[in-house]
Amino acid sequence: MPARNLFVLLGCLLAGVAVWFARARDLPGNRFNEVLSIIGRSALEPASPRVLFEAAVAGAVDELDEHSTFIPPAEQASFEALIDQQFGGVGLELAQDDSTGDLVVVSPVVSGPAWQAGVVAGDRIIAIDGAPTRGLQLADIVGRLRGPIGTPVTLRVAAARPTPLSTPLSTPVPASGQESPDAGRDVRLMRALVTTETVLGDRRGADGVWNFRLEHEPDIALVRITGFGERTVEEFDAALAAIATPPPRGIVIDLRGNPGGLVSAAVGVCDRFLESGVIVSTRGRSGAAGDSPLDVREATAGDAFPDVPVAVLIDGLTASAAEIVAACLQDHGRATVVGSRTFGKGTVQSLVPLGGGDGLLKLTTSEYLRPRGAGLNRRMSDGDAAEWGVTPDRGCEISPTAASLERLRRWRRQRDAVGAPDRSTAAVTAAVDEALTLAVAAVRRGSPARAEFGRQEEAARDADDALPAGE
Q1: How confident is the model at residue 100 (pLDDT cuts 50, 70, 90)?
Q2: What average pLDDT score do residues 439-467 get?
Q3: Can you identify the CATH homologous superfamily of domain 199-445?
Q4: Kindly report the CA angle at 18 between 15 and 22, in degrees rounded to 5?
Q5: Superfamily name and number for 89-169+182-195
Q6: What confidence tier does 47 reach under pLDDT thresholds 50, 70, 90?
Q7: Do 308 and 244 touch, CB atoms closer than 8 A?
Q8: Which helix (DSSP H) or strand (DSSP E) does residue 88 occupy?
Q9: Model pTM?
Q10: CA–CA separation, 409 vs 406, rounded Å?
Protein backbone atom coordinates (compact mmCIF):
# COMPACT_ATOMS: atom_id res chain seq x y z
CA MET A 1 0.00 0.00 0.00
CA PRO A 2 1.35 3.48 -0.85
CA ALA A 3 2.54 5.46 2.16
CA ARG A 4 0.13 8.30 1.26
CA ASN A 5 -2.88 6.00 1.53
CA LEU A 6 -1.63 4.64 4.83
CA PHE A 7 -1.41 8.17 6.25
CA VAL A 8 -4.95 8.92 5.00
CA LEU A 9 -6.34 5.81 6.74
CA LEU A 10 -4.47 6.64 9.93
CA GLY A 11 -5.84 10.19 9.86
CA CYS A 12 -9.40 8.94 9.38
CA LEU A 13 -8.93 6.53 12.27
CA LEU A 14 -7.65 9.27 14.59
CA ALA A 15 -10.52 11.57 13.56
CA GLY A 16 -13.04 8.81 14.31
CA VAL A 17 -11.52 8.22 17.72
CA ALA A 18 -11.63 11.93 18.47
CA VAL A 19 -15.30 12.12 17.45
CA TRP A 20 -16.09 9.09 19.61
CA PHE A 21 -14.41 10.62 22.65
CA ALA A 22 -16.20 13.91 22.07
CA ARG A 23 -19.54 12.11 21.89
CA ALA A 24 -18.70 10.03 24.99
CA ARG A 25 -18.09 13.20 26.96
CA ASP A 26 -21.71 14.24 26.25
CA LEU A 27 -23.31 10.97 27.28
CA PRO A 28 -25.60 11.25 30.36
CA GLY A 29 -23.53 8.70 32.24
CA ASN A 30 -20.38 10.76 31.83
CA ARG A 31 -22.23 13.91 32.79
CA PHE A 32 -23.46 12.19 35.96
CA ASN A 33 -19.90 11.15 36.81
CA GLU A 34 -18.85 14.76 36.33
CA VAL A 35 -21.56 15.88 38.79
CA LEU A 36 -20.40 13.31 41.34
CA SER A 37 -16.84 14.55 40.99
CA ILE A 38 -17.88 18.16 41.52
CA ILE A 39 -19.88 17.21 44.62
CA GLY A 40 -16.98 15.23 45.98
CA ARG A 41 -14.56 18.15 45.51
CA SER A 42 -16.72 21.13 46.41
CA ALA A 43 -19.84 20.30 48.46
CA LEU A 44 -19.76 21.56 52.03
CA GLU A 45 -21.34 18.35 53.33
CA PRO A 46 -20.85 15.77 50.58
CA ALA A 47 -22.82 12.53 50.67
CA SER A 48 -21.29 9.15 49.97
CA PRO A 49 -21.26 8.00 46.33
CA ARG A 50 -23.67 5.17 47.21
CA VAL A 51 -26.22 7.55 48.72
CA LEU A 52 -25.99 9.79 45.65
CA PHE A 53 -26.30 6.81 43.31
CA GLU A 54 -29.42 5.48 45.06
CA ALA A 55 -31.00 8.94 45.10
CA ALA A 56 -30.26 9.43 41.38
CA VAL A 57 -31.70 6.04 40.39
CA ALA A 58 -34.80 6.59 42.53
CA GLY A 59 -35.34 10.02 40.99
CA ALA A 60 -34.97 8.70 37.45
CA VAL A 61 -37.41 5.83 38.00
CA ASP A 62 -39.94 8.13 39.71
CA GLU A 63 -40.17 10.11 36.45
CA LEU A 64 -41.67 7.10 34.65
CA ASP A 65 -44.98 6.36 36.42
CA GLU A 66 -46.43 6.01 39.90
CA HIS A 67 -45.80 2.25 40.09
CA SER A 68 -42.17 2.04 38.96
CA THR A 69 -39.70 2.34 41.81
CA PHE A 70 -36.18 1.63 42.97
CA ILE A 71 -35.76 -0.78 45.87
CA PRO A 72 -32.42 -0.13 47.58
CA PRO A 73 -30.35 -2.99 49.00
CA ALA A 74 -31.46 -2.22 52.57
CA GLU A 75 -35.10 -2.90 51.63
CA GLN A 76 -34.55 -5.73 49.17
CA ALA A 77 -34.75 -8.58 51.70
CA SER A 78 -38.01 -7.31 53.20
CA PHE A 79 -39.55 -6.90 49.76
CA GLU A 80 -38.59 -10.41 48.69
CA ALA A 81 -39.91 -11.83 51.98
CA LEU A 82 -43.36 -10.46 51.19
CA ILE A 83 -43.45 -12.34 47.90
CA ASP A 84 -41.86 -15.52 49.23
CA GLN A 85 -44.19 -15.44 52.28
CA GLN A 86 -41.19 -16.53 54.38
CA PHE A 87 -38.72 -14.66 56.60
CA GLY A 88 -36.58 -15.10 59.67
CA GLY A 89 -38.43 -13.68 62.67
CA VAL A 90 -40.53 -14.38 65.75
CA GLY A 91 -43.95 -14.71 64.09
CA LEU A 92 -46.04 -11.73 65.21
CA GLU A 93 -48.63 -9.64 63.42
CA LEU A 94 -48.40 -6.21 65.02
CA ALA A 95 -50.25 -2.90 65.10
CA GLN A 96 -49.81 0.38 66.92
CA ASP A 97 -52.62 1.67 69.13
CA ASP A 98 -53.42 5.17 67.87
CA SER A 99 -54.60 6.38 71.28
CA THR A 100 -51.77 5.08 73.48
CA GLY A 101 -48.90 4.47 71.08
CA ASP A 102 -48.59 0.90 72.39
CA LEU A 103 -47.29 -1.83 70.12
CA VAL A 104 -50.08 -4.43 70.20
CA VAL A 105 -50.03 -8.06 69.05
CA VAL A 106 -52.82 -8.58 66.52
CA SER A 107 -52.14 -12.30 66.32
CA PRO A 108 -49.15 -14.63 66.70
CA VAL A 109 -48.30 -16.76 63.69
CA VAL A 110 -49.44 -20.28 64.49
CA SER A 111 -46.48 -22.52 65.46
CA GLY A 112 -44.07 -19.57 65.31
CA PRO A 113 -41.60 -18.78 68.12
CA ALA A 114 -43.91 -16.22 69.80
CA TRP A 115 -46.90 -18.58 69.61
CA GLN A 116 -44.91 -21.36 71.23
CA ALA A 117 -43.76 -18.99 74.00
CA GLY A 118 -47.34 -18.10 74.91
CA VAL A 119 -47.60 -14.61 73.42
CA VAL A 120 -51.28 -13.96 72.65
CA ALA A 121 -53.38 -11.42 70.75
CA GLY A 122 -53.71 -8.17 72.67
CA ASP A 123 -50.34 -8.45 74.43
CA ARG A 124 -48.22 -5.31 74.27
CA ILE A 125 -44.54 -5.35 73.25
CA ILE A 126 -42.91 -2.78 75.54
CA ALA A 127 -39.27 -3.30 74.55
CA ILE A 128 -37.07 -5.30 72.16
CA ASP A 129 -33.66 -6.29 73.57
CA GLY A 130 -34.10 -3.61 76.22
CA ALA A 131 -34.91 -0.78 73.81
CA PRO A 132 -38.41 0.75 74.25
CA THR A 133 -40.77 0.39 71.29
CA ARG A 134 -42.90 3.47 71.98
CA GLY A 135 -42.11 6.24 69.54
CA LEU A 136 -40.63 3.93 66.91
CA GLN A 137 -42.12 3.49 63.46
CA LEU A 138 -43.70 0.11 62.82
CA ALA A 139 -41.25 -0.57 59.98
CA ASP A 140 -38.32 -0.01 62.35
CA ILE A 141 -39.85 -2.39 64.90
CA VAL A 142 -40.33 -5.11 62.28
CA GLY A 143 -36.72 -4.64 61.22
CA ARG A 144 -35.55 -5.26 64.80
CA LEU A 145 -37.66 -8.39 65.16
CA ARG A 146 -36.51 -9.97 61.91
CA GLY A 147 -33.04 -11.36 61.51
CA PRO A 148 -30.97 -14.45 60.79
CA ILE A 149 -32.60 -17.74 61.72
CA GLY A 150 -31.33 -19.08 65.04
CA THR A 151 -30.42 -15.72 66.54
CA PRO A 152 -32.00 -14.65 69.87
CA VAL A 153 -34.20 -11.66 70.66
CA THR A 154 -35.78 -10.73 74.00
CA LEU A 155 -39.21 -9.11 74.17
CA ARG A 156 -40.66 -7.30 77.15
CA VAL A 157 -44.31 -8.36 76.96
CA ALA A 158 -47.21 -6.86 78.95
CA ALA A 159 -50.81 -8.01 79.05
CA ALA A 160 -53.53 -6.14 77.22
CA ARG A 161 -54.86 -2.88 78.56
CA PRO A 162 -58.63 -2.54 79.03
CA THR A 163 -60.16 -1.04 75.89
CA PRO A 164 -63.21 1.22 75.63
CA LEU A 165 -64.38 -0.41 72.41
CA SER A 166 -67.76 -2.07 72.46
CA THR A 167 -66.09 -5.10 70.90
CA PRO A 168 -62.79 -5.34 72.85
CA LEU A 169 -59.92 -7.57 71.88
CA SER A 170 -60.38 -11.02 73.36
CA THR A 171 -57.26 -11.88 75.34
CA PRO A 172 -56.56 -14.17 78.29
CA VAL A 173 -56.27 -12.55 81.73
CA PRO A 174 -52.96 -13.18 83.59
CA ALA A 175 -53.29 -15.68 86.41
CA SER A 176 -53.05 -14.44 89.98
CA GLY A 177 -49.50 -14.18 91.26
CA GLN A 178 -48.11 -12.99 87.93
CA GLU A 179 -46.58 -9.55 87.52
CA SER A 180 -48.91 -6.60 86.99
CA PRO A 181 -50.00 -5.94 83.37
CA ASP A 182 -47.83 -2.81 83.12
CA ALA A 183 -44.67 -4.45 84.53
CA GLY A 184 -44.54 -7.04 81.78
CA ARG A 185 -42.36 -10.13 81.52
CA ASP A 186 -39.25 -10.93 79.53
CA VAL A 187 -39.72 -13.50 76.75
CA ARG A 188 -36.54 -14.78 75.09
CA LEU A 189 -37.17 -16.09 71.58
CA MET A 190 -35.03 -17.69 68.90
CA ARG A 191 -35.74 -16.41 65.43
CA ALA A 192 -37.00 -19.08 63.07
CA LEU A 193 -38.30 -19.43 59.52
CA VAL A 194 -41.78 -17.90 59.68
CA THR A 195 -44.33 -18.61 56.97
CA THR A 196 -47.13 -16.10 56.52
CA GLU A 197 -50.64 -16.89 55.31
CA THR A 198 -52.47 -15.15 52.49
CA VAL A 199 -55.65 -17.27 52.53
CA LEU A 200 -57.82 -16.82 55.63
CA GLY A 201 -61.24 -17.99 56.75
CA ASP A 202 -64.06 -16.67 58.91
CA ARG A 203 -62.39 -17.44 62.25
CA ARG A 204 -59.66 -19.54 63.83
CA GLY A 205 -60.12 -22.46 66.16
CA ALA A 206 -58.19 -22.88 69.39
CA ASP A 207 -55.62 -24.89 67.42
CA GLY A 208 -55.09 -22.00 65.01
CA VAL A 209 -56.75 -23.76 62.06
CA TRP A 210 -59.08 -21.62 59.96
CA ASN A 211 -62.79 -22.40 59.75
CA PHE A 212 -64.01 -21.28 56.34
CA ARG A 213 -67.72 -21.71 57.06
CA LEU A 214 -69.56 -18.60 58.23
CA GLU A 215 -70.40 -19.01 61.89
CA HIS A 216 -73.96 -17.75 61.53
CA GLU A 217 -74.58 -19.34 58.11
CA PRO A 218 -72.50 -22.52 57.91
CA ASP A 219 -73.75 -23.45 54.46
CA ILE A 220 -71.84 -20.43 53.06
CA ALA A 221 -68.03 -20.43 52.84
CA LEU A 222 -65.88 -17.31 53.27
CA VAL A 223 -62.37 -17.34 51.78
CA ARG A 224 -60.33 -14.19 52.33
CA ILE A 225 -57.22 -13.59 50.22
CA THR A 226 -54.93 -10.87 51.58
CA GLY A 227 -52.29 -11.03 48.83
CA PHE A 228 -50.97 -13.24 46.03
CA GLY A 229 -47.64 -14.87 46.89
CA GLU A 230 -45.72 -18.03 46.10
CA ARG A 231 -47.94 -20.24 48.29
CA THR A 232 -51.33 -18.60 47.71
CA VAL A 233 -52.65 -21.15 45.21
CA GLU A 234 -51.56 -24.01 47.49
CA GLU A 235 -53.35 -22.37 50.43
CA PHE A 236 -56.42 -21.69 48.29
CA ASP A 237 -56.60 -25.32 47.21
CA ALA A 238 -56.44 -26.38 50.87
CA ALA A 239 -59.31 -24.01 51.67
CA LEU A 240 -61.42 -25.44 48.84
CA ALA A 241 -60.69 -28.96 50.08
CA ALA A 242 -61.78 -27.96 53.59
CA ILE A 243 -65.20 -26.81 52.35
CA ALA A 244 -65.76 -29.58 49.81
CA THR A 245 -67.72 -31.92 52.12
CA PRO A 246 -70.55 -31.16 52.22
CA PRO A 247 -70.41 -28.71 49.32
CA PRO A 248 -71.40 -25.18 50.34
CA ARG A 249 -74.45 -23.43 48.93
CA GLY A 250 -72.28 -20.46 48.11
CA ILE A 251 -68.69 -19.19 48.26
CA VAL A 252 -67.65 -15.61 49.07
CA ILE A 253 -64.10 -14.64 48.03
CA ASP A 254 -63.04 -11.53 49.95
CA LEU A 255 -60.43 -9.43 48.12
CA ARG A 256 -60.96 -6.22 50.09
CA GLY A 257 -57.67 -4.52 50.94
CA ASN A 258 -55.72 -6.97 48.76
CA PRO A 259 -52.86 -5.02 47.09
CA GLY A 260 -52.03 -7.74 44.55
CA GLY A 261 -48.93 -9.87 44.09
CA LEU A 262 -47.97 -12.58 41.64
CA VAL A 263 -50.02 -12.72 38.46
CA SER A 264 -49.46 -16.49 38.29
CA ALA A 265 -51.19 -16.87 41.68
CA ALA A 266 -54.17 -14.80 40.54
CA VAL A 267 -54.43 -16.92 37.40
CA GLY A 268 -54.37 -20.08 39.53
CA VAL A 269 -57.24 -18.84 41.71
CA CYS A 270 -59.36 -17.94 38.67
CA ASP A 271 -58.63 -21.30 37.05
CA ARG A 272 -60.33 -23.10 39.96
CA PHE A 273 -63.69 -21.64 38.87
CA LEU A 274 -63.54 -21.79 35.06
CA GLU A 275 -63.77 -24.55 32.47
CA SER A 276 -62.18 -22.56 29.64
CA GLY A 277 -61.60 -19.07 28.29
CA VAL A 278 -59.24 -16.17 28.75
CA ILE A 279 -58.31 -15.25 32.32
CA VAL A 280 -56.14 -12.22 31.61
CA SER A 281 -53.97 -10.80 28.85
CA THR A 282 -50.94 -8.57 29.15
CA ARG A 283 -49.76 -6.16 26.48
CA GLY A 284 -46.24 -4.77 26.45
CA ARG A 285 -44.67 -1.68 24.95
CA SER A 286 -45.73 -0.93 21.40
CA GLY A 287 -43.05 -1.20 18.76
CA ALA A 288 -42.56 0.68 15.52
CA ALA A 289 -44.74 -1.82 13.67
CA GLY A 290 -47.73 -1.22 15.97
CA ASP A 291 -49.18 -2.80 19.07
CA SER A 292 -47.19 -5.53 20.76
CA PRO A 293 -48.64 -9.07 20.78
CA LEU A 294 -50.71 -10.18 23.74
CA ASP A 295 -49.56 -12.66 26.33
CA VAL A 296 -52.77 -14.58 27.01
CA ARG A 297 -53.47 -16.73 30.07
CA GLU A 298 -56.29 -19.22 29.57
CA ALA A 299 -58.19 -21.48 31.92
CA THR A 300 -57.78 -25.21 31.95
CA ALA A 301 -60.73 -27.58 32.19
CA GLY A 302 -62.11 -28.26 35.66
CA ASP A 303 -64.35 -25.99 37.76
CA ALA A 304 -63.93 -27.04 41.41
CA PHE A 305 -67.54 -26.10 42.28
CA PRO A 306 -69.43 -25.87 38.96
CA ASP A 307 -72.89 -25.56 40.50
CA VAL A 308 -72.00 -23.34 43.47
CA PRO A 309 -72.65 -19.58 43.17
CA VAL A 310 -69.67 -17.31 43.91
CA ALA A 311 -69.48 -13.69 45.07
CA VAL A 312 -66.33 -11.54 45.13
CA LEU A 313 -65.89 -8.70 47.64
CA ILE A 314 -63.85 -5.67 46.49
CA ASP A 315 -63.08 -2.14 47.69
CA GLY A 316 -60.93 0.84 46.80
CA LEU A 317 -57.79 -0.92 48.06
CA THR A 318 -58.31 -4.00 45.87
CA ALA A 319 -55.53 -3.68 43.31
CA SER A 320 -53.37 -5.33 40.69
CA ALA A 321 -53.55 -9.15 40.74
CA ALA A 322 -56.66 -8.96 42.95
CA GLU A 323 -58.35 -6.89 40.24
CA ILE A 324 -57.47 -9.59 37.73
CA VAL A 325 -59.44 -12.14 39.76
CA ALA A 326 -62.46 -9.91 40.21
CA ALA A 327 -62.52 -8.83 36.55
CA CYS A 328 -62.07 -12.37 35.23
CA LEU A 329 -64.86 -13.95 37.30
CA GLN A 330 -67.14 -11.00 36.57
CA ASP A 331 -66.54 -11.05 32.81
CA HIS A 332 -67.20 -14.77 32.62
CA GLY A 333 -70.37 -14.42 34.68
CA ARG A 334 -68.91 -16.80 37.23
CA ALA A 335 -69.25 -14.48 40.20
CA THR A 336 -71.29 -11.54 41.44
CA VAL A 337 -68.99 -8.65 42.37
CA VAL A 338 -69.97 -6.76 45.54
CA GLY A 339 -68.49 -3.70 47.25
CA SER A 340 -66.94 -0.51 45.87
CA ARG A 341 -64.85 0.27 42.80
CA THR A 342 -61.29 -1.08 42.88
CA PHE A 343 -58.05 0.90 42.84
CA GLY A 344 -57.34 0.66 39.10
CA LYS A 345 -53.77 -0.57 39.13
CA GLY A 346 -53.59 -2.55 35.88
CA THR A 347 -49.92 -2.55 34.97
CA VAL A 348 -47.20 -5.16 35.29
CA GLN A 349 -43.91 -4.39 37.03
CA SER A 350 -40.84 -6.42 36.12
CA LEU A 351 -38.18 -6.92 38.79
CA VAL A 352 -34.70 -6.26 37.45
CA PRO A 353 -31.83 -6.91 39.91
CA LEU A 354 -28.88 -4.55 39.59
CA GLY A 355 -25.38 -5.96 39.44
CA GLY A 356 -23.43 -6.43 42.63
CA GLY A 357 -26.54 -6.60 44.80
CA ASP A 358 -27.15 -2.86 44.43
CA GLY A 359 -30.94 -3.18 44.70
CA LEU A 360 -33.87 -3.86 42.41
CA LEU A 361 -35.63 -1.91 39.71
CA LYS A 362 -39.40 -2.45 39.75
CA LEU A 363 -40.21 -1.25 36.26
CA THR A 364 -43.60 -0.99 34.54
CA THR A 365 -43.31 -3.04 31.38
CA SER A 366 -46.86 -3.97 30.34
CA GLU A 367 -50.56 -3.63 31.19
CA TYR A 368 -53.37 -6.03 32.01
CA LEU A 369 -56.44 -6.56 29.87
CA ARG A 370 -59.52 -8.25 31.32
CA PRO A 371 -61.14 -11.12 29.35
CA ARG A 372 -63.46 -8.83 27.36
CA GLY A 373 -60.46 -6.76 26.28
CA ALA A 374 -60.86 -3.64 28.42
CA GLY A 375 -57.95 -2.27 30.42
CA LEU A 376 -57.82 -2.17 34.21
CA ASN A 377 -55.32 0.62 34.74
CA ARG A 378 -56.37 4.10 35.83
CA ARG A 379 -54.16 6.72 34.24
CA MET A 380 -53.46 10.05 35.87
CA SER A 381 -55.83 11.81 33.45
CA ASP A 382 -58.73 9.38 33.93
CA GLY A 383 -61.79 10.59 35.78
CA ASP A 384 -64.56 8.58 37.39
CA ALA A 385 -66.43 8.34 34.09
CA ALA A 386 -63.53 6.54 32.36
CA GLU A 387 -63.35 2.75 32.26
CA TRP A 388 -60.76 1.45 34.73
CA GLY A 389 -60.62 -1.00 37.60
CA VAL A 390 -63.54 -3.24 38.49
CA THR A 391 -66.99 -1.87 39.28
CA PRO A 392 -69.47 -3.87 41.40
CA ASP A 393 -72.50 -5.39 39.71
CA ARG A 394 -75.69 -3.36 39.62
CA GLY A 395 -77.41 -3.33 42.99
CA CYS A 396 -74.28 -4.61 44.75
CA GLU A 397 -72.56 -1.28 45.45
CA ILE A 398 -71.50 -0.40 49.00
CA SER A 399 -70.03 2.97 50.02
CA PRO A 400 -68.56 2.47 53.50
CA THR A 401 -67.85 5.40 55.78
CA ALA A 402 -64.58 5.89 57.65
CA ALA A 403 -66.32 5.01 60.90
CA SER A 404 -67.79 1.78 59.50
CA LEU A 405 -64.42 0.75 58.09
CA GLU A 406 -62.75 1.27 61.47
CA ARG A 407 -65.45 -0.73 63.22
CA LEU A 408 -65.06 -3.54 60.69
CA ARG A 409 -61.28 -3.51 61.14
CA ARG A 410 -61.57 -3.83 64.92
CA TRP A 411 -64.21 -6.53 64.71
CA ARG A 412 -62.19 -8.53 62.17
CA ARG A 413 -59.04 -8.21 64.28
CA GLN A 414 -60.92 -9.71 67.20
CA ARG A 415 -62.29 -12.61 65.14
CA ASP A 416 -58.89 -13.35 63.62
CA ALA A 417 -57.25 -13.88 67.00
CA VAL A 418 -56.53 -17.52 67.76
CA GLY A 419 -59.35 -19.03 69.80
CA ALA A 420 -61.31 -15.75 70.01
CA PRO A 421 -64.38 -16.47 72.17
CA ASP A 422 -66.76 -13.96 70.56
CA ARG A 423 -69.82 -15.21 68.73
CA SER A 424 -71.06 -13.75 65.47
CA THR A 425 -74.77 -13.77 64.73
CA ALA A 426 -76.35 -12.74 61.45
CA ALA A 427 -77.49 -9.49 63.11
CA VAL A 428 -73.98 -8.64 64.35
CA THR A 429 -72.43 -9.40 60.96
CA ALA A 430 -75.04 -7.31 59.15
CA ALA A 431 -74.37 -4.38 61.47
CA VAL A 432 -70.57 -4.57 61.14
CA ASP A 433 -70.00 -5.96 57.63
CA GLU A 434 -72.76 -4.84 55.30
CA ALA A 435 -70.80 -5.89 52.19
CA LEU A 436 -70.43 -9.48 53.43
CA THR A 437 -74.15 -9.64 54.18
CA LEU A 438 -74.91 -8.42 50.65
CA ALA A 439 -72.51 -11.00 49.19
CA VAL A 440 -74.21 -13.80 51.10
CA ALA A 441 -77.57 -12.65 49.73
CA ALA A 442 -76.08 -12.63 46.21
CA VAL A 443 -74.86 -16.24 46.36
CA ARG A 444 -78.19 -17.35 47.77
CA ARG A 445 -79.87 -15.87 44.69
CA GLY A 446 -77.60 -17.92 42.44
CA SER A 447 -74.84 -17.34 39.89
CA PRO A 448 -75.10 -14.59 37.26
CA ALA A 449 -75.47 -15.52 33.61
CA ARG A 450 -72.19 -16.91 32.36
CA ALA A 451 -70.43 -15.37 29.42
CA GLU A 452 -68.34 -17.21 26.87
CA PHE A 453 -65.05 -15.78 25.66
CA GLY A 454 -63.44 -17.65 22.77
CA ARG A 455 -59.78 -18.55 22.64
CA GLN A 456 -57.61 -15.72 21.42
CA GLU A 457 -55.20 -16.33 18.60
CA GLU A 458 -52.14 -15.12 20.43
CA ALA A 459 -50.22 -17.91 22.16
CA ALA A 460 -49.66 -17.64 25.90
CA ARG A 461 -46.12 -17.91 27.20
CA ASP A 462 -45.24 -20.56 29.72
CA ALA A 463 -43.25 -18.32 32.03
CA ASP A 464 -44.91 -16.50 34.93
CA ASP A 465 -45.67 -12.81 34.54
CA ALA A 466 -43.55 -10.33 36.41
CA LEU A 467 -44.56 -9.12 39.85
CA PRO A 468 -47.14 -6.34 40.05
CA ALA A 469 -46.81 -3.37 42.36
CA GLY A 470 -48.12 -3.26 45.78
CA GLU A 471 -46.54 -6.49 46.97
Answers
A1: confident
A2: 61
A3: 2-enoyl-CoA Hydratase; Chain A, domain 1 (3.90.226.10)
A4: 140
A5: PDZ domain (2.30.42.10)
A6: confident
A7: no
A8: strand 86-89
A9: 0.73
A10: 5
